[in-house]
Design brief:
Helix content of chain A: 40-55%
Largest sheet of chain A: 13 strands, parallel
Strand content of chain A: 25-35%
Order of helices and strands of chain A: HEEEEEEEEEEEEEHHHHHHH
Oligomer: heterodimer
Strand content of chain B: over 45%
Distance between the termini of chain A: 78 Å
Largest sheet of chain B: 13 strands, parallel
Shape of chain A: extended
Distance between the termini of chain B: 32 Å
Low-confidence stretches of chain B: none
Radius of gyration of chain B: 12 Å
Radius of gyration of chain A: 39 Å
Structural class of chain A: alpha/beta
Number of domains of chain B: 1
Number of helices of chain A: 8
Helix content of chain B: under 10%
Order of helices and strands of chain B: EEEEEEEEEEEEE
């Protein structure tokens, strides 16, 4: 693909070594080894099997192989995840991909002007995320320990207490209502069920009635839950 | 991919060694040592001592050639130098100046 797009291209095969100076006005793709100086006006591509021990002056350098030497590029230097470079890089655009190996200095030219602009941009952007971030984590941190400490205590005791006394009333109402609904539903089922089981519906209706009475007395939840639990324990 | 191609705008000043085919469309000065085939294309210019198995010259070569198998000078080929090879072909239209030794 690249060949077709780029047109003329010089290839140094995997089994070829060149020692000396290499210069040209076309793309160079190195699978083999070059010792010396390389100067191109186009793109240098060092494939994973390629080794360059050379000072390099190119427009673009894409390094997937090994380069020992300084690279000066008028456009960009791209060290891919397979690339290994020891030397200094000098180019306006330099890409170091995760996995790439590099040791040396990097000079991107007029970076100082860009750096001067960066704080301004950052200052414009930062305040919003900062204010959003700081308050949200703080309550989360406060809230989580409380929640964690309560379950850590002895489980059987605190749960009923929290539900009965401190838990929100709506939840108790819901549980009461659901309990009552269940009781009614049971009663309905048992009424519809065949006659021999008359005793059961009588009990369930009685239970529903007692539940209604309990609601009327406004002290319903603790006794009912406690009673159910004690029954369960007895069973 | 295995082969090496020196493009038409490339100039190499130094030594090329290899164990695969080499195709030269550009300029090479120095020394070439291969174990396979060398082809100097029409646009190729070689000023080097060459040691290979076979050489096919369609461009311009200045230097001595030591070939293990064959040297072929095509109609477009121009060469100045000595050739030592068991088989040497010089086509009609080729230009050559130098010594030939087919003993090897």
């Amino acid at each position: 693909m690249e060949k077709l797009i780029n047109g003329p291209e010089t290839i140094i095969g995997a089994l070829t070594q060149i020692s000396g100076n290499l210069q040209g006005d076309e793309d160079l793709r190195v699978y083999g080894r070059v010792d010396g100086n390389v100067s191109l006006t186009k793109t240098l591509t060092v494939e994973p099997s390629g080794v360059l021990v050379a000072d390099i002056q190119v427009s673009r350098a894409v390094i997937s192989g090994t380069v020992v030497g300084n690279i000066t590029a008028s456009d960009l230097v791209h060290i891919t995840e397979e690339g290994r470079v020891v030397g200094d890089l000098r180019a306006p655009r330099i890409m170091l991909v995760d996995g790439a190996s590099f040791r040396g200095n990097i000079d991107m030219g007029d970076v100082e002007q860009d750096i001067a602009d960066v704080p301004r941009r950052a200052a414009e952007k930062r305040p919003e995320p900062v204010t959003d971030e700081t308050p949200t984590p703080a309550p989360a941190r406060k809230a989580t320990p409380i929640k964690k400490t309560t379950p850590r205590g002895p489980r059987p005791a605190p749960r009923p207490i929290t539900r009965a006394s401190s838990a929100s009333r709506s939840s108790t109402l819901v549980t009461r209502a659901s309990a009552a609904a269940q009781a009614v539903a049971q009663a309905v089922r048992k009424k519809e069920a065949p006659k021999p089981k008359k005793a059961a519906p009588a009990k369930s209706t009685a239970a529903a009635a007692s539940a209604k009475k309990a609601r009327a007395k406004k002290a319903p939840k603790p006794p009912t839950t406690a009673g159910k639990k004690t029954r369960a324990k007895r069973k | 991919m295995a082969n090496t191609v020196i493009g038409s705008s490339i100039v190499i000043d130094g030594e090329i060694t290899g164990e695969e085919d080499l195709e030269i469309l550009g300029t090479v000065k120095g020394k070439i040592a291969l174990k396979e085939n060398l082809r100097v294309e029409k646009s190729g210019v070689v000023e080097a001592d060459i040691a290979t198995t076979t050489v096919t010259i369609s461009g311009q070569v200045t230097g001595n050639i030591l070939a293990g198998d064959k040297v072929e000078l095509t109609a477009e080929g121009r060469m100045v130098g000595d050739i030592k090879s068991p088989r040497i072909l010089i086509a009609d239209g080729a230009s050559f100046k130098g010594n030939i030794d087919m003993d090897a």
